[in-house]
Design brief:
The complex is a heterodimer of chains A (175) and B (88). With 175 residues, chain A is an all-alpha fold. Chain A has 8 helices and no strands. The longest helix of chain A has 16 residues. Classes of the chains: A mainly alpha (175), B mainly alpha (88).
Chain lengths: 175, 88
Amino acid sequence: MLRARLVSKAVRILAPHIVAGVYTPEELQDVGESVTQAAPARSSKRVSPSPAAEPAATTEPTPVTNHVGAVIDAEFTVVNDPQTTVTTIPPEHVESGEVSPAAKKVSDDDEPTTPELITELVAVTSQFPGENGARITADEIHRRLCAFAGVDSPHKATRGQIRSLIARCREALSR
Amino acid sequence: MKPSPVEWRRIVHHDFGDVIDERRNIEHVLERWHWLLHSLIDLVGPSVVYDVGLRVLEYPPTWVDSHGEADLVESAVFDFLRSKYSGI
């Protein structure tokens, strides 16, 4: 019997659509007893065993299909208490073990740069003259950027390097 | 009078531009682009260079094979980026 209850509980947890809310009379009796023990004052209101649950002495349990009144639902009230306000923490901060993401500013300066940052840098540096005094070329920008970042391709530079270069170029242009 | 190579390209693109899909595989930089534009493409990406180059040359910039054409494309891309980021 306990094994059968275990199976039925497991099915209700894992695949509730199979049983579709159907309870045997014995299960309903158990539910009624547990509710009566837990909250005797409210059990008469919340749980109303259906007439189909009455013949508990029968040897073969008959499926009960209409037990709307037997469904036990938890009651809750919404409390607008600022002390109990739950703050949603982004998953990446939870995984990295950061407890307070607001307190700690996350910097992405060490991450690889983005194409947008490079195009912004090109837009800024293209306003400077080239080595021979003429217009600066893409080849010069490419070479200088790689030399500054110590990489062989601009896309291997970090965001912090590109941002500092953009800031320095803007500062030089404003002078 | 015989058209110049640049004029020939414009004529070919005007007449056969719908037939030839020149934008195909523009990300294959070594095979599809002139080496003078490789640095620019590495910096800003092939799509920007292609779109701006097509507008300024009136034929696909993948057909570029001279310094003059490459300089024209490069300065047009710089102008485009400066206008794009001028408000920042």
